[in-house]
Design goal:
alpha/beta, DHBP synthase, Rossmann fold, 2 domains, seven-stranded mixed beta sheet, six-stranded mixed beta sheet, 13 strands, globular
């Protein structure tokens, strides 16, 4: 590709570039400028709000400033909602905003309004940035923000960002990486697919692509995979999967950067704090404003297709993963369980996944079967 072609590609994809820059701004705690037609608004994640920023936003907020919250958080506040909504902010009051967005026992103090296109874009941008899903949205004029130097992004570009990234998925590097239980292993790194993060396919052995390939979709879990946390069974599942593939004709483990069911590491640790106070894993996420599962697996299916895989045997306890692969056009010929060790710290978590999300988990299995792949 020539330099002129490269710049032409950048010019032709300015909206995607703008979303990527906006994601970086939000993660850095800075406001961004959202546009929908002729309407403009400054948006900021609540976790970045302090008194100084509140005063600056108040100077911009001549009218209709609002706090945008997702449906799970609104339900925690006392509404019966299936869709997000917003509270009017006559003042950018940090105490009130913090209470409505984060306080465990908080109740609503005003009516909730449906979202505008700008509000919806702000909430999606926060999800992409893996920060707390609570946004302050301040409608502005072009003149009032002309000298602020904010990154501007169109709401429509945010709405299609995930699907465009999934379509742009491509292999960026690959190399053999011998593992303790699987010395004949290759790591294949993909770019695109989910936000600004790389994804990894761990190819164990030499799976026969003419036959159904054993596959696992494994979402990254820093606490379990690396540090051996006893609050989940992720580390066990990861290592048992690789061992099983090495001993049974090979396979592909997709290691997906979707920490905390797609909520991000900081929010996962926030949820752990709530769990320590008695909430189960899903109620803890709901307090923070998250649905049961924020993940999507369309890009995971694209990774498999890029590797030449069309027929799969899926190692999972999660029926949603099976359905997602089938929906993406892969032939799921079988699914099998991968069960980690039970302990006093993870049994409630596993029971919640079984009872509230329909995972295929038998908690009364004898310890001698805990390492078996059924």
């Amino acid at each position: 590709m020539s330099i002129s072609d490269l710049f032409a590609d950048v010019r032709g994809d300015r909206q995607t570039v703008a979303v990527e820059r906006a994601i970086s701004e939000v993660r850095a705690g800075r406001p961004v400028l959202l546009r929908a037609g002729q309407s403009l608004a400054v948006a900021l994640g609540v976790e970045a709000l302090d008194e100084r920023i509140a005063a600056d936003l108040q100077n911009l907020a001549r009218r209709n400033a609002r706090l945008v919250l997702p449906a799970p958080r609104l339900n925690r506040l006392g509404f019966e909602r299936t869709s997000p909504g917003s509270f009017a902010l006559p003042r950018i009051d940090t105490a009130r905003i913090s209470t409505l967005a984060l306080e465990v026992s908080a109740r609503y103090d005003a009516p909730v309004a449906p979202l505008s296109k700008l509000d919806t874009a702000a909430l999606e941008l926060l999800h992409l940035a893996l920060v707390l899903p609570a946004a302050i949205v301040v409608p502005v004029s072009v003149r009032s923000v002309a000298d602020l130097g904010l990154i501007e992004v169109d709401a429509s570009a945010i709405s299609i960002f995930r699907s465009r990234n999934a379509a742009s998925l491509h292999i960026i590097s690959r190399a053999p990486v011998p593992l303790e239980e699987a010395p004949d292993t290759e790591f294949v790194v993909f770019r695109g697919g989910e936000g600004l993060r790389d994804q990894v396919a761990v190819v164990v052995g030499k799976p026969n692509l003419a036959e159904p390939v054993t596959v696992r979709l494994h979402s990254a879990c820093l606490t379990g995979d690396l540090f051996g946390s006893m609050k989940c069974d992720c580390g066990d599942q990861l290592r048992q999967t690789v061992k099983f593939m090495a001993e049974n004709g090979g396979g592909v483990l997709l290691y997906l950067d979707q920490e905390g069911r797609g909520n991000g590491l900081s929010n996962k640790i926030r949820a752990y704090k709530l769990q320590s106070k008695g909430f189960d894993t899903y109620d803890a996420d709901a307090v923070l404003g998250f649905d049961h599962d924020q993940r999507g697996f369309d890009f995971a299916a694209s990774m498999l297709k890029e590797l030449g895989i069309a027929r799969v045997r899926v190692m999972t306890n999660n029926p949603f993963k099976i359905a997602a692969l089938e929906h993406a056009g892969l032939d799921v010929v079988a699914d099998q369980r991968i069960i980690g060790r039970l302990n006093d710290h993870n049994v409630r978590y596993l029971a919640s996944k079984r009872d509230r999300a329909g995972h295929y988990i038998e908690l009364d299995a004898p310890e001698s079967k805990s390492n078996a792949v059924e």
